[in-house]
Amino acid sequence: MQIEQHGVDVIPEAERTSRPRDIVSFLIGSNLALGVVVFGWLPVSFGLGFWASASAMVLGTLIGTLLVAPLALVSLRTATNLSTSSGAQFGVRGRLLGSALGLLLSLGYTALTLWVGGDAMVGSLARLFGLPDSAASYALVYAVLAVCTAVCAVYGYRLLLRLSRVLAIGMTALLVVGLAAYAPQFTTQAPTGTSYLLGDFLPTWLLAVVAAGLSGPMAFITLLGDYTRYMSPTRHSARRVYLTTCGGLVAGLLIPQLFGTFTAVAVDAARDYAGPLVQQAPFWFLVPLLLAASLGSVGNAGLMLYSMGLDLDAIVPRTTRTRATYGVAALATVLVYLGHFVWDAQDAMTAFVLLLTAVGTPWAVIVLIGHARCRGNYDAEALQVLNRRSVGGRYWYTAGWNARATAAWAIGSGVGLLAVDTPVYTGPLVGHLGGFDLSFLLSAAVTAAVFTAVTTGEPARPAAEPPAAGEIAAAGERSGNGEARESEGAGGAPEARGATA
Question: Is the pTM of this model over 0.90?
Answer without folding.
Answer: no
